[in-house]
Amino acid sequence: MFADFFFRALIGGIAITLAAGPIGCFVVWLQVAYFGTALAHTVLLGVALGYLLSIDPALAVLITCFLFAGCLMLLERRAPVSLDTVLGVLAHIALAGGLVALAFMEQMRVDLLGYLFGDILSIGHADLWLITGTVAVTLTAVSWQWHNLLAITIDRDLAAAEGVPVERVRLLLIFLLAAVIAIGMKMVGMLLVVALVIIPAAAARRFASTPEFMAIMAAVIGAISVGAGLMVSLAWDIPAGPAIVLVSGIFFLAGLANPVRKVFRS
Amino acid sequence: MQAPLEDVTARDARERADQDSPLVLRGMTVAYDQKPAVFSVDATFRSGKISGIIGPNGAGKSTLLRAALGVVKPLAGRATFFGSTLARSRNRVAYVPQRASVDWDFPARVVDVVAQGLYRRLGLLGRFGREHDGMVMAALERVGMEDFASRQIGQLSGGQQQRVFLARALAQDARLYLLDEPFAGVDAATERAIIKVLKALRSEGGTVIAVHHDLSTVEEYFDEVLVMNVRKISAGPVETAFTPEALDIAYGGRLEPGMRVPQKEPA
């Protein structure tokens, strides 16, 4: 009864949330959501770059996100003004630059709405390969660096004193976040992609008592949100991306009702 | 060829003392934005003692400790741990940062935080076994936090979290413990619990170095002090280094009310 494109959307979406869950946990713990927001603003610039160099736009977005993440990490170390301001300035320059660059390409018909709000049902075979590959690399990197990532989460100074290469681990995390943003953008669009990273993780907090369990719960909540969101969008004929985000929002609200402080008191 | 005893110069004696010392600082200089926070501090901390780094706010006490541990990069100078580099001495050095506080968003039990201190011992392929569980619980018992073992770390008060991070250091079974303001902003029960642990470590032959700013407890808590304000002002046993003159220089003659200048009491 379901068409191929529906299954591709389902598989691609769930794959993305498997990576977004654990990465989202670190984004919540380290409070670096603003990095994600800034990275999402570079998407259109990446698309324009893709057309210009005639490479796959999804790949171009991934590369642009990596480059921007690298710039942000450099700036964080020696920001001329406050980092918050720098991020706000650079992110919007990237967005405006992307819009202008796309306007110059008159011969190209760019689906602007698709980039803003995502178009999960347009995930093709090539996209699916890029998504699953990126997710596999992300999950491998997270499990490889798990203890170091936890160490910098608990206390950065303590981690540094104990020989954890703090800057390199943080750089890795921001790169992984950039990767998740780049592939998640396809699903829910640049305006909602940060929600995809943060909301499942924030919702999972209320159901988890250890970091490992929270990372897994975040992935599970994300995956259920994708499945339920797609069903709802099909049944009621509403856009899929926002539906997915709203379902994960319901998990978050349900979590708020969960009196976790009592549950975990022994 | 062995040098005869008479030829041992003062310099050799100092070098020998440095070899035995758990921590030697030479010419330690740290600057933030071109402003020196610590300037050319030399210090040799003696083994088996509780040493305090004393000075006013902004004197660079914490910065000195952080620079020694490589948390901040010193502009100049070097730190020698047990006659070697920090990298080679890591298993003998434990650190308790200032007011380490874990956010409520981070879901970890008290035992998890203490256990996390052991992971670097295990290495990449090491497994966390039953003996490690025992080390974690023993460390929590030493700081009186065993009843809180399965609590969420974010639920604890600042003083309780401080004790957990001390337990995390204790579990590492180090020879040198570096503590940054362990008594700042903690309740009286925690302060008593911490100093009891530090004195126990000393009697086991361990060395403790703590950044400290409460002058009224210096004589009670410490064997030796390093009094500093950006530069080193005095160093040595409390009786000879913690003097009104040294404090006068450190605090620029404006001791805040309530800070008691030590009085030499007749023996």
Which short descriptors sum up this protein?
heterodimer, A: about 270 residues, mainly alpha, ABC transporter involved in vitamin B12 uptake, BtuC, 14 helices, globular, disordered C terminus, B: about 270 residues
Largest interface: A-B, 25 and 29 residues
CATH topology of chain A: ABC transporter involved in vitamin B12 uptake, BtuC
**Low confidence ranges of chain A:** 262-266
| Poorly predicted tracts of residues of chain B | 263-267
Percent of residues in helices of chain A: over 70%
Give the CATH superfamily of chain A: ABC transporter involved in vitamin B12 uptake, BtuC
Q: Which shape of chain A, going by the Cα principal axes?
A: globular
**How many separate domains make up the residues of chain A?**
1
Class from helix and strand fractions of chain A: mainly alpha
Strands in their spatial order, largest beta sheet of chain B: 5-6-7-3-8-9
> What share of residues of chain B is helical?
25-40%
Quaternary structure: heterodimer
Q: What's the number of extended β-strand segments of chain A?
A: 0
CA gyration radius of chain B, whole angstroms: 19 Å
Overall strand count of chain B: 9
Distance between the amino and carboxyl termini of chain A = 49 Å
- The average pLDDT score of chain A comes to 87
Which CATH class of chain A?
Mainly Alpha
